Structures are given as C-alpha cells and as structure tokens.
DNA sequence: ATCACCTGTAATAATAATATTACATGTGTT
DNA sequence: AACACATGTAATATTATTATTACAGGTGAT
C-alpha cells in the first residue's frame, strides 16, 4: 500500500473524479475549512468528507484541525505541492512496484479466451 | 466530451486501475494483438476488451485490425506517445473546461451541511 | 435555552465499474 | 468434420464507488 506503484495508482484514483478535480482547483486559490469548501463546491458536507479523505490519502492535500479566535474548531485543508509526469515510461516504472493482491496465479476463466 | 478538461478526466479514469496500468506497461515493450495480450496479462478476453476500450477512448492506445499472412484477422494494439504533467496548476487549467452535467444549480441536500 | 455556526461518523440507498458466462462469427490445419 | 486459433458482443452477476440521510458532539452569541 505504500510502494511507489501503489502510490501512483492511488493518485490516479483520486483524480479520476470531476468533483475532486474541482476541489483541487478550489484549494489552489487558498486553503479552506470544510464547511466553507462545501458551500463553494455546492456539495453536502458528508460527501465532501469522503472526497477529501481520498485526496488526502493520495497525498494531494493535507488537513489540520485548528482553533479559531472565537474557539470554534475548524478543519483547514490545503494543497500539497506535487508533480507527476505521466508517460508510458513513468507508468512502466510504477508498474514494477505495483503490489496487486489480485494478481492471479491461474487465469480467471476457461481457456476460451 | 472533448474539451481538454474532459480529456484529462478521461485519462485519469483510464489510469485509475491496476490492470490498465499493466496493459500500458505491457504494450510499451511492443505492440500485441488482443488474444496474445490476454494471455500475457492473464485476463479473459471480454474483460480485456473493456479495459482496452477505456484506454483507447482516453487516447492512450490505438488499435487496428490487420490481416495476418495466413488470413486470420488480428487486432493489434499499440501505445500512443503521451505526456501529462500533473500539477495543481495543470489540474486547475483542466477544470476550466470541465463540462460536468452534474453541476447542480442548487445544493443536493438540506442546509444541514 | 434557542439559534447559528462548526466537526465528525454510522447506516443506507443509488449508481457505476468490474468481472464472468455464453454465445456469435471467421480462418486454416489435421 | 472436428480442431485450434482469432475477433466481437450481449446478458448477467459481482463488487466498488458515489451520494444521501440522520444523527452525535462542540463553541459563542442573542
């Protein structure tokens, strides 16, 4: 789950969603707390939560809970600086360390392929 | 469906799968026909078909049907040369042309967010 | 105490992606 | 004619993702 190959896959999975792309674009302007961001992208907060977790798990954003002046807890998310150059070469390199539990020893189907 | 933003999303969706990453890595060595590739990646042909279509739709590979010397029809797939530099900036730029039919005018939920 | 904000999550519904099975077609060879 | 190998797809099952609903808790201000 932490090899370079798996990391790449996780990044692609994180970016394979229009909402999450918008979130990234949104956070690039400046960091935001969750409720604020929910209003901005017009999304329910629980749903936004899921998307944020996927982005954070991929290492594209980071969140930290802060205490505002008036004592309210606010979770701010901000962008991580990242740069992935996606080419056949880089993908090939990533695949070398892809630990896929679903790499079968035997084919899934009959020899009808 | 053909704006730069949508194209980016399609590329991310295409690469967000371990099998498809392996297919790309496989085709980088040299082009292959479908049945050959199916044996190589140990996958049923119908399933491989679906993955190939997703990769081709994203413009990462191209396939063309050829006739072998002994008259058999064989569909060869080969890699496209591509390079996507994934950064907060490039994502922001892509989002500008993201035509998401699911961009609601009103929030999905009650004002409970 | 009620309101207006905020965080966090569990349970579920709805939808999309993935995978399998079964079949259609064609060729050339034994 | 039966076999080995190729392409192509329709129908279905399985699994994962996405989305919603309904709650829990906290703070400070009216």
TrEMBL record, chains A, B:
Signal peptide: none annotated. The keyword rRNA processing does not apply. InterPro entries: ArsR-like_HTH (IPR011991), HTH_ArsR_DNA-bd_dom (IPR001845), HTH_MetalResp_TranReg (IPR051081), WH-like_DNA-bd_sf (IPR036388), WH_DNA-bd_sf (IPR036390). GO terms for molecular function: DNA binding; DNA-binding transcription factor activity. Pfam families: HTH_5. Keywords: DNA-binding, Transcription, Transcription regulation. Residues 10-96 form the HTH arsR-type domain. This is ArsR family transcriptional regulator. It comes from Cohnella lupini.
